């Protein structure tokens, strides 16, 4: 039960991090001429950007994909750092035994 809770919290945290990085990157690149409803859909997710591809200026869909990959890379980097830290902690605790 505790493992399932930890897994759910980890997934939610990493998903939130990836989503936040995506939103920060894509909103900085949105042109001011886009209608507000399109801006909201594109800023919400990559899926939204793909669904509105017909209404986007040239290159904005690629920028949305880049923003998504950057968010995913940030979440992956956090996972790698956490795994490294937990490995070091485990090694240190095993030496004490």
Automatic annotation (TrEMBL):
<feature type="transmembrane region" description="Helical">
    <location>
        <begin position="67"/>
        <end position="92"/>
    </location>
</feature>
<protein>
    <submittedName>
        <fullName>Uncharacterized protein</fullName>
    </submittedName>
</protein>
<keyword id="KW-1133">Transmembrane helix</keyword>
<keyword id="KW-0472">Membrane</keyword>
<keyword id="KW-0812">Transmembrane</keyword>
